[in-house]
Amino acid sequence: MHAKTEKAQIRLTRLSSAYWRVTIDNHPLNVMGPQLVREFGEIITAVEADEQVKVLVFESAVDGFFLNHSDFKADFKELTSMPQGPTGLDAWPDILVRITRMPVVSIALIRGRATGNGSELALACDMSFASREKALLSQWEVGVGLVAGGGPMARLPRQMGRQRALEVLLSSNDIGGDLAEAYGYVNRSLPDSELDSFVDALARRIASFDKWAIANTKRLVSAASLPPDVEIAAGWDTCMASIARPAAQGKIRALFEQGFHRPGDAEDRLGFYVGQLGHGG
Fold it and tell me: Source organism's superkingdom (predicted)?
């Protein structure tokens, strides 16, 4: 798992046999390309194979970004040509579905931007906690003529209700920590200075409990609340079809001209820039 020719974009830290942390570290913007997806898959496989781990916390080492949108400079064929995972879904949705099903509690610690893939990861986790001052969640895809691929159309209505889900998806706007909490997008929004200690204490508390009880409780909650895989697959297929559309390609090109994919205002205030694309164009 550690023998890579390129610098690893994710780090796995075993704080104890029961409590592991996954740190996303793809500077400068934490965008998600094929290498990051491959590394994610390796880590989830390692978690599934370990009988002692009970809690997995996802966090970021990149200031301002939890996990961002896809890498639009990467070759999408490299992503789509990856073999399907054990669920029978394509690589990224497979990882997300396995996170929802594994007998391990997953917690997203969201500091910075969780856009597209980052939002999808947070929605797949069993719990998520956001920085009041620094978290921004969004599904930006509709704003550039795309359809999201990691299952938010299936997950969001079950989590926050149909109307709020449609507001999040169709506005393609950035949502701060407090509103995310009010909508049920995250469990709680916490002052940034308290976020790390809160998540660590919760993770350690759950990790001290019996794994059989944790796993069976999660299994039964999931049976009552998770979307069927066919809904996730339909979203991924529509996402892949949307990427090649001229409307999407034109809007993504326009965003690149404004500084997309580079550190700066367009990435920091992506919701604002996406909202400007249709004006005067």
Answer: Bacteria
